[in-house]
Amino acid sequence: VQLVESGGELVQPGGSLRLSCAASGFTFSSYAMSWYRQVPGKEREWVARITNTGGIRNYADSVKGRFTISRDNAKSTVYLQMDSLKPEDTAVYYCNAIRGVVAYWGQGTQVTVSS
Q: Please, are residues 8 and 85 in contact by the beta-carbon 8 Å criterion?
């Protein structure tokens, strides 16, 4: 099982990034997918979630209206489009796959929002 995040980089405030998470080794279309983020010294924070079919999406209040989660089951990939980025969005972003009690995590990708 692998979840490989990519797309993180340094971006200026107000800018945009799209993160990707490529999955392999499990039946991607059967799993809900989420994005989390973590800064040093703080707990990992849930950011967004999408059901296995993509029919329902939920967001943390801190990103609602700025971030969009999507998925392509044919490509076994989940995305996080991040717009109007703020310095407080700086974190390592992780993708998560979950189905019942089974959960998988990626290694994370660093997003830094700074001028």
A: no
pLDDT in tens, 98-108: 999 999 999 99
Separation CA 95–CA 104 (nearest Å): 8
Cβ partners under 8 Å of residue 27, min gap 6? none
The tokens 């993509």 sit on which residue? 54
The burial class, CB within 10 Å (0-12 / 13-18 / 19+), for 45 is middle
Asked if 89 and 79 count as a contact pair (C-beta separation under 8 A), the reply is no
C-beta atoms surrounding 13 within 10 Å: 13
Give the Cα separation of 95 and 103 in Å (integer).
11
Find tokens 């703020």 and name the residue. 86
Residue 33 contacts residue 93 (beta carbons within 8 Å): no
- Tens-digit pLDDT profile for residues 65-99: 999 999 999 999 999 999 999 999 999 999 999 99
